Structure formats: structure tokens, C-alpha cells
Amino acid sequence: MVQILFILFLLIIGYSLKFAKFPQDFGKSLNLFVIYISFPATILLQVPRITFDNSLWIAVITPWSVLTLSVLLVFLFFRHLPRNTLAALLLLVPLGNTSFFGFPMLEAVIGKEAIQYAIVYDQLGSFFMLSTYGAFAVSYFSGDRINIFGIVKKIALFPPFIFLIFSFIAGPMPQIIIPYIELLSHTLVPLALISVGFSMQLKLGDDKVIFAKTLFLKLVLIPLIAIGIFAILDIHNMTATVTLLEASMPPMITAGALAIHAGFAPRLSAALVGYGIVVSLATIPLLYQLILFL
Question: What is the distance between the alpha carbons of residues 42 and 47, in angstroms, rounded to a whole number?
């Protein structure tokens, strides 16, 4: 409970800075530091600790399965909506905030040992989906041409992905530099959460019914379906627990930014990202207790 309150405290700090005399690109600067320094340092520490057994495939396959399920449910429940609103939901429901918000939440709920599996879910799941499916969705609904080369280049040059591949190849870092890598890694949680708080928008528009249904779909129904499937298949291990909680994360900030930039229901998109983070502070611990019970 203390860790969850600390996450809330950091989010409030970030949100409060919006009203101080900070530059508008302050959040972007924090994001760049996290992407280029904090996240790679965490990868260098955690990836070599991954246990490569038959359960690891769960963290790779599940995000893509959740993506498919999310798209189907969005079309099932919201196909009647205007094209731009539907486009926003097709970005925000399938894509979750599995790193900037997900890592701190998992560390608070489960412990630091969860991060190694969360990295696999995030980099081979969420990041790839954002770069491929997300780019396709934005291009399709915007009427733009899909740039395959640009997508491949973005994936190949993304710093955390480069460090992920390097860590798989190089293995554990030399003991002499680990304390310094740990020091950089410790900046991930506070900076990521302050950045998330700074980016939050909590203004609701007129689409309150759509907003409520979407949050229920993203934070409750889809996670419960995933948990039910894992229970039926009798999959119970650390990888499965981390995977299920990653699948329960609120809408991704970057997906919301893409939707807003493309003109896909901007106010609804911003509200789903902001309130999704706040609501998930309660839903994720509850889902974790359900997973332990099953």
C-alpha cells in the first residue's frame, strides 16, 4: 500500500508541475532521459537475470493475443461510432502503458523481480505493437501512406530495443560497473512517474458514456478474460502473473499522443490516458489479488 501511495505522490508532483513555470517540453525532456539512460540501465541489470524456460513465451505471445482481442471487442462495442472516435479507441484500448507506468506498478505490487519479465512483454509486445500496429492504424485512419521502411528504422534504432538485444548477447555486466548502472537504473521510477503525471490530462468532454465503457473494457473486462483463460489453462508462475498485470495496464501515453496529434477524438483520448492511470491504481492491485486467489 505504501508503494502505491508513493506512485500516487509522484504522479501528483508531475501533474502539479504543469501549473508551475516549467517549459512545455519538460515532460519530453524527462522522457528522453528515461528512454536513453534509465530504461537501458534497467535492461542491462534485469535482462541477464531472466530465466529462459518454456514459460517465457507467455510474455511474448500474450500482448499480441490481447491486441487481437482488444480490436475485436472495440469493433463489437463501438463500431457505430464516428470514424475518428473509433480510430482513437483502436489505439488506446489495445496499447497499454507497460513501461513508464507499468514498471513502477509491478515493482510496487510484486517486487523488483517482476521487471525482467515486464521488459520482455514491453519490448517484444507493446513497443513492437506501437511501432507496427499503431503506425498502421494512424496511417489508415488518416488516409496516409504506410511507410514500412520508417517503421523498421524506428524499431531498429530505439535505444531500449538496442540494449535489449545487446543484453541478450553480452549477458551480465562486469561486477565493477554494476553499482553505477544500478544508480542510473534507480532514476527510472521517479522520472518516469513524474513524466507521466506531467503529461496527464483530466478534462472530460461530452463522451462520458463512451469514456466509461472504454475504461471498463480496458481495465476490467479484457484483464478478466485474460485471467480466466490463464486459469482454465492452469498457467501459474511469475511470468504469467507479470504478463497478466501488464495486460491490465491503462492506455499508453504515446498512443494517446498519436491519437491527439492525428485529430482522433483529442479530449476523449487525453481523458482516457489520464483517468486510466488514476483508476488503475486501484484495479491493478485488485486484479493481482484475484490472480493469487486463482
Answer: 8
Separation of alpha carbons 272 and 208, rounded Å? 10
Q: Is 205 helix (H, G, I), strand (E, B) or coil?
A: coil
Residue type for position 171: G
Half-sphere exposure of 143 (CA within 13 A, CB side): 3
Q: Taking residues 267-275, what's their average pLDDT? A: 92
Domain limits for position 125: 25-293
> In this structure, how many other beta carbons lie within 10 angstroms of the beta carbon of residue 155?
16
d(CA 112, CA 185): 12
16 in a structural domain: no
Residue with cell 511470468: 239
User: Which residue did the predictor score with more confidence, 99 or 143?
Assistant: 99
> What distance in Å separates the CA atoms of residue 217 and residue 89, rounded to the nearest whole number?
11
Least confident of 41-45, 73-77, 81-85, 136-140: 136-140
Give the torsion through C-alpha atoms of 288, 208, 10, 4, to 10 deg.
-20
- Determine, yes or no, domain membership for 13: no
For residue 6 the three cell numbers come to 508513493
- Among residues 42, 45, 1, 7, the alpha carbon closest in space to that of 195 is found at 7
Question: In degrees rounded to 5, what are phi and psi of residue 96?
Answer: -105, 160
pLDDT digits (tens, 9 = 90+) for 170-200: 889 999 999 999 999 999 989 999 998 888 8
The helix/strand/coil state of 213 is helix
Taking the model in full, what pTM does it have? 0.90
CA distance 7 to 69: 29
Domain tally, the chain:
1
